[in-house]
Design brief:
Layout (H helix, E strand, L loop, with lengths): L20 H15 L2 H10 L4 H17 L2
Length: 70
């Protein structure tokens, strides 16, 4: 028996974006106002777990730390 499989489609990736330290700070402040600091999210994760939005926020904060060179 044979089955038809959907073929992969090529996706175009946009041009890289250069973030300034000010852009990074603004993104961090927005996330921290909504969800809390990275440390508070990590503590909450260890105690009771995180919602999907909180997990995404924590990942974004980790990415911003990397971009800042922390």
């Amino acid at each position: 028996m044979t089955a038809a499989l959907a073929s992969l489609q090529a996706r175009r990736i946009g041009k890289p974006i250069m973030l300034t330290l000010e852009d990074i700070r603004e993104q961090r402040d927005t996330i921290e106002r909504t969800f809390g600091t990275r440390e508070s999210l990590e503590d909450k994760r260890d105690i009771i777990g995180l919602t999907l939005d909180e997990r995404i926020a924590l990942r974004n904060l980790e990415d911003l730390d990397y971009l800042e060179g922390c």
